[in-house]
Write a structure and sequence with these properties.
heterodimer; A: 117 residues; alpha+beta; Arc Repressor Mutant, subunit A; three-stranded antiparallel β-sheet; globular; B: 891 residues; eight-stranded mixed β-sheet; seven-stranded mixed β-sheet; 25 strands; 52% helix
């Protein structure tokens, strides 16, 4: 991939946030952003600020809940956690992604099968 | 999924209204985010400065993140709308002159439309104010020439029809011959006149009207010998009895008979508004049919169809039943009368059609006229906005350069249009409210249902609709033009004389032409209707309404011959007494005034002659005293009745000229014998035809009986005077009171008001259409002025150069005026051609005027030409005063 980073597809950030919260439990915005960066191996082009638009979207849909709390190092921060309907949504979306990725993988792995026979 | 998106929408709405706390929350959250990031960077060994910078870089644009957050959170389009509105109010407030003119133009256009819609809605669109009013049917013979007597049924026919038909839930009716002020209320100071209508006992039950107080009539109360009862109209109860809450059960004295008030009718029920436009009805009493078996055709019929029965089915049934109806059960030869003759039969129409059907065409024309006004107003506004667009070109080009999308700019301009339109709608509603409440109180306007008019939900809805449509009509085009302007062109300093300016000019010229064409159609329509109205006013009515007035005289109906003789003496006394008053020229009695109620008594035939069946019909009957013909200003050939024509002498009659021509063609009718009303009568006089039933139609036939030989149904004293009749009211009433102390304070009515009332619908339409035409003309002239004036301003430099090169003032002036007249001429040509087509559409509303009336068209050309000339002259004069030196130096 070199120096260029991946642009995030529409809607993928929401899914990443949901998955991060499922894996990590309750987390603040910075934590989520950092986690996604780490997991992606810094391959994703993420302005950390954009995470907040995603968080409010998920919150409005009732998939995550938010609460002010105190971080490990004693700082005030807003903590997010996934809700029951959020888990359900994640399962659906993840399955959808897996299928799509599988199909894309197969299509892209297509060899020149007897085309010049 | 549904619930999730609904929840999301709700959350967005909630967030929209909690902007401040949410923004605060977000700020804090972002601050803590950065703090966390900096802390982590510091712990990995960065300098504080580097740590901070790194955190900021990773975060990205703080403002953008906030924007994104807000967009996902709230209702971004509402935020944009709010911005647009705020901006609009600011620009409109800055340009106060423009705003006021725009709102005034729109207010006039919308106001006129809303007012007319209220009238149309009240008369045409809204159902009648009765329960399931679509089931109600007006049952009457087809229209004939013998007045009300041929439009009604006898008591026996009524009962029989009711018994034999199956299509109706019930049938009801009312006595059709009540005259105004036919009751006298005593016991409250001076005797007061009141107008009462006798209705069948089930009248209100069939219509579905509930009393406001008390109860309706019972069946027993419509039987012979029942104690007299009455229902009061709401307005009468308020006026005469000061809204006495205890009125139900009280006795009032009506025509010297103690009558129990059983109830008060609701305010929404106005008998006059529905059944007798232009007259007021104070009280309703039950009709006792058994007393009226021998009176001939007296009642109207209204039926309520059973659910599911169509008008066609009911008509088919009526056609079967009518041949079996008898005028009187006691006279078998009268059976089948209702089905015979060339106009025989029965015609059913919905009650709604009976009440408002004949106004449909006029109202639609009115609606179209007022719609045209709105179009002209919109064209004018478009023009104004285009002129503004030219001035604001740079502003929008700048916004566009700064990143505003085309859509956003058009949206902004549409918001401006909508705000202007809303202002116009508010002003228009105010105007319409004033106009409608004024119209609703025009008691003498003979249009049905008008008194029930008010601004209701439908009217509000209509207002909103036309305001929005108007905003798009006048706002969209200038908006699109402005948003599509070439940027560089606009941003360059010199804005005048560019090609964009020239297309602007062309569009504006096209708008002016269409405006002139629309005004042209309005003027032609109004002109044709005006000419018709003048023709109607010119009709020779056969009597002279000027300088004559009438008053209803109270008398006790004689019960026997002696009483009849005494009554003759009383009438003679009154005439002698009133004639002696200073200023009075002549006086006489009649039982029904022309253009009011009327009746016919069978078909008189000239003695000894036979006519083919259907050649003769029943003339309208008037019972008059000696002197009446003179008091009305009618023209008489032969002699008037005299007080010597009594019960002992030969019966005499007068007939009108049309009847005389058919009875004795080529001969003098005076002196001939007519078999009329069951006996031989000598024709002593022939009077010229009078318009007894209507102003615009055929005068028909009339016959006059002397008051000394036939008993009158009523007594209207007609007085002709040299002085204005109103000035006699007091002395006439005093004279009447001296002879009869119980004479009520009846209204002294100029005969001219009777004619005015008959002409009032036409006058109403002419007045409105003329006002609209005037308004259209005014708006069109504003439009012409605006465009020419603007083009002169734009061409200041060019004109300056031309003058510097030797063009004279008059040449410049003529050039501008010529351009104006060219625009007007094209408009007049287009409009004239369209009017030519449209005039055919209103042909049926005209009287004695061809739709292609050359005078009207010529007048339209002259008026529009003159207005265009004036509108062009002012800017032309300004152009000719341009100082070349100044013009060339500026810019």
């Amino acid at each position: 991939m070199g120096d260029t980073k991946l642009d995030l597809l529409q809607g993928t950030l929401d899914l990443m946030v949901l998955q991060t919260l499922t894996a990590m439990g309750s987390l603040h915005g910075y934590g989520i952003a950092r986690r996604i960066e780490q997991i992606s191996g810094d391959e994703v082009l993420l302005n950390q600020g954009t995470i907040y638009a995603s968080l409010v979207r998920l919150q409005h849909r009732g998939w995550i809940a938010a609460e002010w709390g105190v971080s490990d190092n004693n700082r005030k921060a807003k903590f997010y956690s996934i809700t029951k309907s959020g888990r359900k949504q994640l399962a659906e979306d993840a399955a959808h992604w897996a299928r799509l990725a599988g199909v894309m993988g197969r299509v892209l792995a297509m060899q020149n099968e007897g085309g010049d026979q | 999924m549904m619930i999730a998106s609904l929840q999301r929408a709700l959350n967005r709405l909630r967030s929209f209204f909690r902007k401040k706390p949410l923004d605060h929350d977000l700020n804090e959250e972002m601050a803590s985010h950065l703090d966390l990031a900096i802390e982590e960077n510091l712990s990995s060994g960065m300098t504080p400065e580097a740590a901070r910078r790194q955190a900021m870089v990773r975060f990205g644009g703080v403002q953008q993140a906030k924007e994104q957050h807000r967009e996902s959170r709230g209702l971004p389009w509402m935020d944009v709308l709010g911005q647009d509105l705020r901006f609009t109010f600011r620009t409109l407030a800055k340009d106060r002159g423009f705003t006021m003119i725009a709102i005034l133009i729109l207010g006039l256009g919308i106001g006129a439309n809303v007012a007319v819609f209220s009238v149309v809605n009240t008369i045409l669109l809204r159902p009648l104010p009765f329960r399931d009013s679509q089931q109600l049917v007006w049952i009457a013979p087809p229209p004939q020439t013998c007045g009300l007597s041929c439009a009604t049924y006898s008591a026996d026919a009524y009962d029989e029809f009711k018994a034999q038909t199956k299509a109706y839930q019930d049938i009801t009716g009312y006595f059709a011959f009540s005259s105004p002020d036919n009751y006298k209320l005593t016991g409250h100071g001076d005797p007061q006149p009141a107008t009462g209508i006798e209705v069948m006992g089930n009248f209100f039950q069939v219509l579905g009207v509930e009393p406001e107080k008390g109860r309706l009539f019972t069946t027993a109360e419509a039987q012979k010998g029942a104690h007299p009862v009455a229902l009061l109209a709401h307005a009468y109860w308020r006026r005469q009895f000061s809204g006495d809450p205890e009125i139900v059960g009280k006795e009032i004295d009506l025509n010297n008979t103690p009558t129990t008030v059983v109830g008060v009718l609701p305010e929404s029920f106005d008998f006059g508004a529905v059944f007798s436009p232009g007259s007021k009805v104070d009280l309703i009493v039950p009709e006792i049919l058994d007393n009226e078996r021998s009176w001939g055709n007296i009642v109207t019929m209204i039926g309520r169809l059973k659910p599911g029965v169509t008008l066609g089915q009911a008509q088919a049934e009526a056609n079967m039943v009518v041949p079996h109806l008898c005028w009187s059960e006691k006279q078998p030869q009268s059976c089948g009368d209702y089905a015979s003759g060339k106009d025989g039969g029965m015609e059913l129409r919905t009650l709604k059609d009976y009440v408002s059907g004949k106004l449909r065409r006029s109202l639609i024309v009115l609606w179209a006229a007022v719609g045209t006004i709105l179009l002209i107003a919109c064209v004018n506004l478009s023009n104004l906005l285009l002129a503004r667009a030219a001035a604001r070109h740079k502003e929008f080009a700048m916004r566009s350069v700064l990143g505003a999308s085309r859509r956003r700019i058009v949206q902004q301009l549409l918001v401006e249009s909508l705000v202007l339109s809303a202002g116009g709608a508010v002003l228009g509603l105010g105007i319409a409210f004033g106009v409608t409440s004024w119209l609703a109180h025009q008691g003498s306007l003979a249009l049905p249902l008008l008194s029930t008019m008010h601004i209701d939900g439908a009217v509000m809805g209509w207002t909103v609709l036309i305001a929005v449509v108007a905003a798009f009509l006048f706002g969209l085009m200038p908006g699109l033009r402005m948003a599509s302007g070439q940027l560089q062109e606009a941003l360059k300093d010199s804005g005048t004389g560019t090609s964009a300016g020239r297309t602007h000019e062309r569009v504006r010229a096209a708008l002016v032409i269409s405006e002139v064409a629309l005004a042209c159609m309005l003027l032609v329509g109004a002109g044709l209707l005006m000419r018709s109205f003048l023709k109607v006013l010119d009709i020779d009515l056969g009597f002279q309404p000027e300088h004559a007035a009438s008053i209803k005289v109270q008398y006790d109906a004689p019960t026997d011959q002696a009483g009849g003789l005494k009554l003759g003496v009383t009438f003679r006394d009154i005439i002698t007494r009133v004639s002696a008053l200073p200023g009075v020229e002549s006086a006489g009695f009649v039982d029904f005034l022309p253009l009011g109620r009327n009746r016919a008594w069978g078909t008189p035939t000239p003695k000894g002659k036979t006519f083919p069946e259907g050649a003769l019909h029943g003339p309208l009957v008037y019972v008059v005293s000696p002197g009446y013909v003179q008091a009305m200003g009618m023209r008489l050939h032969g002699r008037d009745f005299s007080w010597e024509d009594g019960l002992k002498s030969q019966p005499v009659v007068m007939i009108n000229a049309s009847a005389a021509r058919v009875y004795w063609p080529g001969e003098d009718a005076v002196g001939q014998i007519l078999v009329a009303n069951g006996g031989d009568s000598r024709v002593v006089g022939v009077v010229d035809d009078i318009h007894a039933d209507n102003v615009e139609g055929d005068p028909g036939w009339q016959i006059y009986y002397p008051i000394t030989q036939q008993s009158p149904a009523d007594a209207q004293l007609v007085i002709r005077s040299k002085v204005p009749p109103e000035s006699l009211a007091g002395s006439v009433l005093r004279a009447l009171r001296e002879l009869n102390p119980t004479q009520p304070a009846a209204e002294f009515r100029p005969i001219a008001t009777v004619v005015e009332r008959a002409n009032s619908p036409r006058r109403f339409f002419v007045l409105l259409v003329s006002i609209f035409a005037g308004l259209g003309l005014f708006l069109a002239s504003l439009g012409i002025y605006g465009v020419i004036s603007y083009s002169v301003t734009r061409q200041t430099q060019e004109i300056g150069i031309r003058m510097a090169l030797g063009a004279t003032r008059s040449k410049v002036e003529l050039g501008v005026i010529g351009r104006t007249l060219r625009l007007a001429a094209i408009g007049i040509l287009v409009g004239g051609a369209l009017s030519f087509v449209l005039a055919k559409g209103i042909a049926s509303l005209l009287y004695g005027t061809e739709p292609t009336d050359p005078l009207t068209f010529a007048a339209m050309v002259v008026v529009l030409g003159a207005v265009a000339l004036l509108a062009g002259y002012l800017p032309a004069r300004r152009a000719s005063r341009i100082d070349p030196m100044i013009a060339l130096r500026t810019n």
